[in-house]
UniProtKB/TrEMBL annotation:
Entry keywords, A to Z: DNA-binding
Boundaries of every HTH arsR-type domain copy: 11-91
Protein name, per record: Winged helix-turn-helix transcriptional regulator
Record bears the keyword DNA-binding: yes
Length: 207
């Protein structure tokens, strides 16, 4: 699986703007699945699932990575061809579709994050940690700020540098029996106005 695929075809762009196909793709980024398995996950008919799989495979967004025979039936395992997708500059005339695709991809990621959160074990949240969030065994933060695009890109560059360093450290823990599985997710995007700036402090109320 490639780390990133550049989308150069308009039909690929349209496919990734479909809410259900985004959910399907996010599953296939995580792990290979058969049509039957996906049918059970999404509680949809195999015919409908296979229709979407055929279309995504035709567009070069997913591929068959292995086959297995079960009860005389050949099962095909599908997987995404890349971990992430980004539209090429040649598609810039389709700005509305690009915006919708990015929005749907992020919404799908958020939806998947919510599912993983609900599936997490209780002991992931039971420990009464110290007051300093940096010492907690969970990570949750949400905030808004006003900066230039240059400074936002500075932040994202630092974020990905740290992510790469973290992934390299994680490789050292692969065989460590004390290592645990953690689900990580991150978002950042422009908004029209800051909701946080509307907050009123207790000192303001007393004036």
């Amino acid at each position: 699986m490639e780390p990133m695929m550049i989308i150069r075809d308009y039909n690929q762009l349209k496919a990734l703007s479909d809410p259900f196909r985004v959910k399907l793709m996010l599953r296939l980024v995580e792990s290979p699945f058969t049509g039957q398995q996906l049918s059970e996950i999404f509680d949809l008919s195999r015919a409908r699932i296979h229709y979407h799989l055929r279309e995504l495979e035709k567009l070069g967004l997913i591929e068959i990575v292995k086959t297995e025979e079960k009860n005389g039936i050949i099962q095909k395992f599908y997987q995404s061809v890349a971990s992430g997708f980004y539209p090429d500059a040649s598609l810039m005339p389709h700005t509305e579709e690009i915006s919708n695709t990015k929005r749907q991809m992020m919404y799908g990621m958020l939806d998947r994050t919510m599912t993983r959160l609900l599936e997490a074990p209780n002991d992931a949240f039971e420990e009464a940690g110290p007051k300093d969030p940096a010492e907690w065994n969970i990570l949750a933060t949400s905030w808004e700020t006003k900066v230039t695009e240059e400074n936002f890109r500075w932040y994202t560059n630092k974020y990905f540098e740290l992510l790469e360093e973290f992934q390299n450290r994680a490789k050292e823990d692969t065989e460590n029996p004390e290592a645990k599985h953690y689900y990580m997710s991150g978002y950042g995007f422009q908004v029209n106005e800051s909701n946080f700036s509307k907050r009123i402090s207790s000192s303001d109320e007393n004036e």
